[in-house]
Task: structure prediction
Amino acid sequence: MREKLEMTISVIALVAMAAIPWPLAAGQGAAAPSLEEQLQAQYKLTRIAVDANGPTIIEPGTVLTIQKGGILGVPPTGLACAAKYQDGTLHSPNGVCANMAKQTSRIFETGEKVYATKIEVKPKNERVTVRIVAFDSSNGNNPPTFY
Result:
């Protein structure tokens, strides 16, 4: 009789397990993190503030190293000229933007250290935007400037 009871309980437990939808059992609606959340978890963003001496890093984040030259650096208060990386090639900003900013801009060089200040993912546009800033204090320039 006891064997029959144990077998009945085992069969009931097995049927109950089969009846539970596994996605619900696995996490009760826990969604996988978005690409933006994954990137922000991997790369700590740098926080910047402006004081009487100009911009300053108030909370440093992950230090990145420029791997391909061609990114145009502009002052934080200036016109943003975005470079585009596509199909393994870094495309410099368009000529109009670069010409408008040429008096106050410079090209980041390979090996230069920068911080990420913003990461934005737009799946509909298939675009990931990373805003970076270079503080010359991290690159040894004096007097310090920032782009």
In short: Confidence is low (pLDDT under 50) at residues 1-26. Residues 76 and 147 are 6 Å apart (CA to CA).
